[in-house]
């Protein structure tokens, strides 16, 4: 599978998250992932990153649709899951990272 490629340099993800907050942007799993896996021209750093993101978006959509059917709400107007819920959805979609081990 190989290691992940990103544009974040040596900056930890929590620092990227804080920068987003300082810039007035709500950090979501999706926004953080796009920030460090796409170039400024919105090109993916590699196909693996694109595939992982697409799996997450699909799982997120399925989760929101399922939750909306339980709540009886419209999936497009339902509230965004918490950051912790988003991380759980990411893990469900892509598994845990082994960091090259």
Automatic annotation (TrEMBL):
Region feature Disordered, mapped onto this chain: 62-101
Polar residues: compositionally biased ranges: 62-85
Pfam families in the cross-refs: Transposase_24
InterPro entries given in the database record: Probable_transposase_24 (IPR004252)
Protein name (record): Uncharacterized protein
